[in-house]
Specification:
Blueprint (H helix, E strand, L loop, with lengths): L1 H25 L6 H6 L3 E5 L3 H6 L6 E2 L2 H4 L10 E6 L3 H12 L3 E7 H11 L1
Parallel strand pairs: 1-2, 1-3, 3-4
Length: 122
């Protein structure tokens, strides 16, 4: 019984790993997030709540909270969009929402990551 449970856990881990790898490949791993963040035609979207956004965010970022994102996808269509949050969890969710709506979206993970990329350029 223990062998079966261990084998099931091992198979599950491999399956989950392969799903993550496939998702990364679908996001076009060749894309350099630094180039996207620093491009002139990008929209940076902070998906955190307004209180967090007001405390600190990346330069020129707009705030569209994750809860409101589904209602605001039309303004993002046809544009390059980088989404980010505090830890990257909400950004992952935002990427999925926007991909389903046909938006050209990139995951910037955290606002600190995007801000650091912006500051590197200077």
């Amino acid at each position: 019984m223990r062998v079966k449970v261990s084998a099931l856990i091992l198979i599950s881990l491999f399956a989950l790993s392969s799903c993550k790898t496939q998702a990364v490949a679908e996001n076009n791993i060749q894309t350099n997030i630094k180039q996207v963040v620093n491009s002139a035609d990008v929209i940076l979207v902070d998906v955190r709540i307004p209180e967090q956004y007001n405390e600190a965010t990346a330069k020129n970022a707009v705030n569209i909270p994750l809860a409101d994102l589904d209602k605001n996808t039309d303004v993002l269509k046809g544009k390059k969009v980088v989404v980010f949050c505090n830890k990257g969890i909400q950004a992952d969710q935002a990427v999925e929402i926007l991909k389903k709506k046909g938006v050209d979206v990139y995951d910037g993970t955290t606002w600190k990551n995007v801000k650091a990329i912006q500051e590197e350029k200077q």
